[in-house]
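Hi team,

As requested, here is the filled-out complex form for the manganese (II) ion run. I kept the field names the same as last time so the parser does not choke. Let me know if anything looks off before we queue the next batch.

— J.
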Amino acid sequence: MASTVPAVPTKLVDVEVATTSRRTVPVVVLVATGPELGPGGDGIDVSDLTGKAGETVRHDEAWTLGVGTGTLADYRTAGASLVRALSGEDAPRTADVLLTPDLDAARMRAFVLGAALGGYRFKVTGEDAPKRVGSLRLVTGDTGFEEVLTSAALKAHALATATSLARDLANTPSNVKDPRWLSTTAARLADKVDGLSATVRDEKWLAQQGFGGVLAVGGGSARPPRLLELTYGTTGPHLVFVGKGITFDTGGISVKPADGMHLMRTDMAGGGAVIAALLAVARRQLPVRVTGLVPCAENHVGGAAYRPGDVVRHYGGATTEVQNTDAEGRMVLADALAYAVKNLKPDLLVDVATLTGAMKISLGLRTGGVFSSSDELAAEVVEAGAGVGEKWWRMPLLEEHVSAVASEIADYKQCPPGPGGITAALFLQKFTGDVPWAHLDIAGPARSEKVYDEVVAGATGFGARTLVELAEKYSR
Ligand code: BES
Ligand code: MN
Ligand code: ZN
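And here is what came back:
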């Protein structure tokens, strides 16, 4: 029943930073490998502790939490494990975490990110959610750095909120999530944020404007396509983020095998990352201009579905020879990229998409692929990701495959032969003009089968934090 789908956005664990601890609140003592106990550890028996990152042990009065050797990944893991340990029947409402004096802003960010996201849960059920700690007080003691640490915690919580919303949108099942739901849910959230505005265009507008790629892909579904445009800011460089918003990907007439098809409800994860990033940038009132474009469509099988062999005219006039209706992501992105180049004067264009199974094979499930026409921009994406716990690896736009994007009967061939992730990127590049552009293929890391670090099984929200961090870099 639709009404049992969790309200979007779901609730995160709250975090506050203070110099002193509270009375009558459970206390969490940090343990580094050694084991070496942090503040508040007097009287705790260390004989059963290793201090390994994420090790949580309940003692009489207190909890201990392993922070390993204190790397950023250790702190993310520790924050996430703590919240998981403080869940279930006897979960306390709140707890005080006694930080160690070496805790700098970067570790604070990592810890808060882990704590806010580690307890993430999305379950469609009529039952009450299991209990989980509602908030944590992070106790710094009198270090004199309280202000820096507080702003680090706030930023990390904003990044976690973005990741969490991106997860919510992608986890929402496709019987609820269609192009209208995705675009109007984003617009409803955007309306509540100062300086952020949302426009949702329907299939009639798309037809008048010539969005042939979006209409072709959306044609097979009874739930018509939409274009979501989110706009923020008036000054500073203009960044345009484009996200693939396929609310379900059956493959269309080139239908996918049954095994694993259900996972294609997260095929709008790139669009979700863009929506979540725009909300975060606007909530933080960053001094930058950002536009988010999400072409939303359901790739389905039906009497009006597009066919292999069709020639589709994209926004702006370029044409594509369709070879496989399952390569729908590039069809909708091509329209949106062309629209951005023609109308938005971007200083920077970044698209994010669960685009190719080939990328999953190339880089696995924890690293995104970056393709860019600009060495500088590629490096900026990798660096932005590294700062917020998202790994990227640069992939080449191989020159020797460019000629294969040409078609005999149209301007471009949709699925040129050769390495799949790369040829998809080369196809997209045709629609980017001379704007500095990066294409982020997140087919691998957008979902996880496992719980690790701050990630839980299901949609990961991957990409949202990198986009926010990139906007932060370009701010002012
Ligand atoms: N959404 C898929 C890509 C995908 C696959 C994402 C697995 C996440 C996990 C995309 O629309 C697709 O079907 N791509 C095809 C392209 C091919 C037909 C050229 C692919 O990768 O097989
Ligand atoms: Mn597909
Ligand atoms: Zn797809």
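Two things worth flagging: The mean pLDDT is 97. The pocket of manganese (II) ion (ligand 2) is lined by residues 249, 251, 326, 328 (CB under 6 Å).

Thanks,
J.
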